[in-house]
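Quick one, T. Sequence first:
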Amino acid sequence: MSMIPLADASRRPKRFPVVTAAIILLNAIIFLFELLGGEPFVKQWSVIPADIVSGQHWVTIISAMFMHGGWMHIIGNMVFLKAFGPEIEDAMGRLRFLAFYLLSGVAASLAQIVPCPIQPFPISGLVVRLPALWALL
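Structure tokens:
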């Protein structure tokens, strides 16, 4: 018996989860860029609250949701995305799932900017949005 949820046998998707697969692939590609680019890449593409509040680097609100702090971070996030994403994508539809993923990522960034808007270093995203929605299905 596995302690890590890799799928839900009671909820099989009716079609291949294209959006989930694309998000996992994009995360893997961005993580490789992180490994190759090091700290300069991370600082350029992660949300830094002080920059956002001063009106700079708004694109990082989107790009940061694909950034990861290390191997365990990306592996953990992708395991949960693989476990919960296909069923949620199937239930919501591809376009709505993509919109949900992106909007909840933006909301997660904003929720971390508001409490400490002058923070001069990158913040980390939240991974709870998919399991929380899956639990509602």
